[in-house]
Task: inverse folding
């Protein structure tokens, strides 16, 4: 592996290698503050507008008081005026405000790795998810979900991210508010509530204090007046295997719920989500723009009140926060040709993804698709959309929990599988199991293992596709064993240790090697 990482040439690749070394060397001083990133390497990445470090590096410009993404296309500032930060909250804590052109709120989010600081990363993802969804969040609850004390969480969080959890949460909420003010017609009061503020006065004070302008002033300055569906931009770090991800989704698409087109590089689907005591239904549609390293998304107006949650689901579903510069070298020794920018196609709804996994137990992809399509046709709620191929929402947990076993059995789903499906539905509907990438991993997997009809293969695939865990590995998967040329499960599990903490991506690579016959 080290040989692969060290094959760096000149130009942006050299900057890339230097910057990664700077990140690796970023440790904690005695005063619990992060040591500064290597300024020379970071500045080279900024000069090159290197999108691979979008979301992992921010540059504050002392002459303007603004902080930018490395991909910002304004005139490159002089190096003596630059300060470099590993995240947006640390830039704002230093007194910088977000650039109105490159818009730091559009940058890719964290890519969670299995490191000694994993708890701090898990906490950050819980905070990110809550901020994007506009949910209330209490630090003692986060600590309890991670199995640590409030004090310990504050200590390790500050050591890893350079700011307190509260400062981090405030930044994420204000960046979401900035995005809603810029890209949506929501009234300022609705923006405040959607960003997690129960008081409009507190929202106005926080926004003005951090960004030196009022929310209404920002909206007037941007001059946004949308009509109909909203058009939004979601950034990702290149490279990105667009054809591979869309091909995977197209082969498993469920009629009425989703559509994926590899040629047009487009995707659309229906969504139903709970928001403040009600269920919102609508649709999302978008296409990849590889030259800009973005996914351009349209969102139905009916989903506007929960836009933060929608964006979080799309980012998770398309794995937009992955960091190929960390993942690709770990997969270099796997069978088959290199696939730069491989992604894990996660679900936009965790419960739906888990149901798909259960109905895929011991059957082919085509058979699983048939069962899921029947389930949607029987229990999915009809929906009106501008697209002829989007007509139903995937049934929610409460609907399937309350369905009779006989009605599910008439779809051709065997009794054991129907029992597993309904057991899961009851736990999710009751709130005892949460299936999203901010959910605590170990307790969630233990709860899944306790359900009837759910074995380790199912648990690992749910972790991979519903919880977006990058190190899930179903060692007993037939496709994985076939790609490795063995039926020895212990040997497969031992072999997989070399690919940690990116074994979910290794699974995708092994499956892909079977498709290509290499």
Result:
């Amino acid at each position: 592996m080290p040989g692969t990482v060290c094959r760096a040439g000149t130009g942006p690749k050299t900057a890339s290698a230097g910057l990664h070394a700077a990140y690796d060397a970023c440790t904690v001083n005695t005063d619990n503050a992060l040591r500064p990133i290597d300024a020379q390497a970071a500045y080279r990445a900024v000069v090159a507008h290197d999108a691979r470090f979008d979301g992992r590096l921010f540059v504050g410009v002392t002459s303007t008081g603004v902080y930018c993404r490395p991909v910002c296309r304004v005139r490159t500032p002089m190096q003596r005026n630059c300060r470099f930060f590993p995240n947006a909250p640390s830039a704002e804590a230093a007194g910088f405000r977000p650039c109105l052109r490159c818009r730091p709120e559009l940058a890719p989010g964290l890519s969670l790795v299995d490191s000694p600081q994993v708890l701090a990363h898990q906490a950050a993802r819980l905070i990110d998810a809550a901020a994007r969804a506009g949910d209330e969040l209490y630090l003692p609850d986060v600590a309890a979900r991670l199995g640590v004390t409030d004090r310990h969480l504050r200590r390790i969080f500050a050591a890893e991210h350079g700011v307190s959890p509260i400062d981090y949460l405030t930044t994420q909420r204000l960046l979401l508010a900035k995005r809603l003010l810029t890209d949506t017609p929501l009234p300022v009061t609705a923006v405040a509530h959607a960003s997690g503020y129960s008081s409009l006065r507190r929202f106005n004070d926080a926004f003005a204090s951090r960004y030196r302008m009022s929310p209404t002033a920002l909206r007037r300055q941007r001059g946004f007046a949308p009509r109909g569906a909203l058009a939004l931009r979601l950034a990702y770090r290149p490279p990105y295997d667009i054809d591979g991800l869309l091909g995977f989704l197209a082969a498993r698409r469920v009629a009425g719920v989703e559509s994926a087109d590899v040629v047009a590089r487009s995707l659309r689907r229906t969504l139903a989500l709970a928001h403040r005591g009600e269920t919102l239904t609508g649709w999302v549609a978008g296409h990849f723009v590889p030259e800009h390293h973005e996914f351009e998304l349209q969102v139905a107006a009916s989903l506007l009140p929960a836009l933060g949650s929608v964006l979080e689901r799309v980012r998770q579903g398309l794995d937009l926060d992955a960091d190929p510069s960390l993942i690709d070298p770990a997969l270099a020794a796997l069978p088959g040709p290199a696939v730069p920018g491989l992604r894990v196609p996660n679900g936009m709804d965790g419960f739906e993804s888990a149901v798909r996994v259960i109905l895929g137990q011991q059957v082919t992809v085509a058979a699983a698709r048939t069962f899921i399509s029947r389930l949607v046709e029987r229990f999915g709620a009809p929906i009106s959309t501008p697209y002829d191929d989007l007509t139903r929402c995937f049934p929610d947990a409460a609907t399937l929990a309350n369905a009779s076993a006989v009605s599910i059995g008439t779809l051709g789903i065997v009794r054991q599988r129907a029992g597993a499906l309904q057991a899961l539905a009851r736990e999710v509907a009751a709130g005892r199991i949460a299936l999203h990438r901010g959910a605590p991993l170990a307790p969630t997997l233990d709860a899944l293992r306790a359900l009837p009809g759910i074995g380790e293969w199912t648990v690992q695939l749910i972790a991979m596709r519903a919880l977006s865990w990058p190190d899930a590995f179903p060692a007993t998967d037939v496709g994985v064993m076939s790609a490795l040329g063995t039926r020895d499960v212990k040997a497969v599990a031992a072999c997989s240790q070399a690919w940690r903490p990116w074994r979910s991506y290794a699974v995708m690579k092994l499956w892909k090697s079977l498709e290509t016959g290499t």
In short: The beta strands are 58-61, 66-68, 82-85, 97-98, 230-235, 258-261, 266-275, 278-289, 294-299. Confidence is low (pLDDT under 50) at residues 1-35. Residues 165-183 form the longest helix (19 residues). DSSP finds 24 helices and nine strands in the chain.
